[in-house]
Design brief:
heterodimer; A: mainly alpha; 7 helices; about 75% helix; B: mainly alpha; globular
Chain lengths: ~190, ~180
Amino acid sequence: MSEPSPSSAPPAPSLGKIFWVFLVMGATSLGGGVVGYLRTGLVVRHRWLDDVTFVELLSISQTLPGLNATNMAILVGDRLGGVAGAVLAMLGMCLPGATLMTGAAYAYGLGGDDPWSKAFLHGIAAGAVGLILVVMVQLGAKVLKTAADYLFVLATAAAVAGFGVQVPYALLVAGTIAIWWHRPRNKGSK
Amino acid sequence: MKQLGDIAGVFAYLSLLTVGGGMAAFPELKTLSVDTYHWITFPELLHFYSLGQLAPGPNMMMVASIGAIVAGLPGAAVALVAFFLPTGILTFAVGRLWTHLATWRWRPAIQVGLGSVAVGLVLAGTIIMGRGALTDVLYVVLAVIVFFLLLKTKINPAYPIVASGLVGLLAHWIQYTPTT
């Protein structure tokens, strides 16, 4: 898309603004799918990033360990305000959910043994399995291209869930094989 | 103090396994928090994990819940810092390097290769979670309905998940007895 050149490089937002925007996203991104909220907030509403940069940063976030939401907060925060920007973006992103889930632990201590709470939470857990499967399918649709990729998925899952292989070993072995499988090939040129 | 040290060690370790999302670390989270340290039971872990999916922000803030159960507010703080600091520093460093790696020949190989393994880890986590959560045909049906609803529509995931909780309540109210 064409964009007007004067507004293509908006002035860097203040650190307070960075913290506030991420705090709002951290507090309002209910029900998972933080990536959608991030795009709305960062690309559409505040125009701190264009879509190409957003996708680029997202692909870094997905490749590295760490959650997409916090990795994105760090990468975007760093671009907008350096180290302080990264720290504040991350804090803003985490603060609301962390407060809620800490509170949930205390509430659970008071009422978690109640059979009604248990029945409710058991239902929620079943729904969450459905949600996680959807997230997995969406992630898979992006990265799985060849039959070999599906084999890597099944082998990794079978090793961990079926044979109790510890995740770090599975990650190391399957990761090495998969990366080697996709290794850069010399296409005639040396 | 020893407990805080254990929390720090466990969650720092887990954070490094979250390739492809928090679910990738779920198998080890279950092993360590339930089987090794006996901080919580498996059903409790499922409850907090699922609540964490509903909470706003990153979907693994439930590490704060486990920390709080083990050692109160300091426990929650230590769990959060341990879980987010190591990967945070890594992401920060790689983020600054990444642009220099744009033409590195191995970059696509790492992205695609790790991608498929990450999907495998998420699948493993989902299977282990399913063993605890899908204890009866009713809950299997619930999970399948939520799956297709979220796959086919743009509905906010919070709604079907809360609805699943209400179905759980209803099942308790009518004294639905599991078939198995």
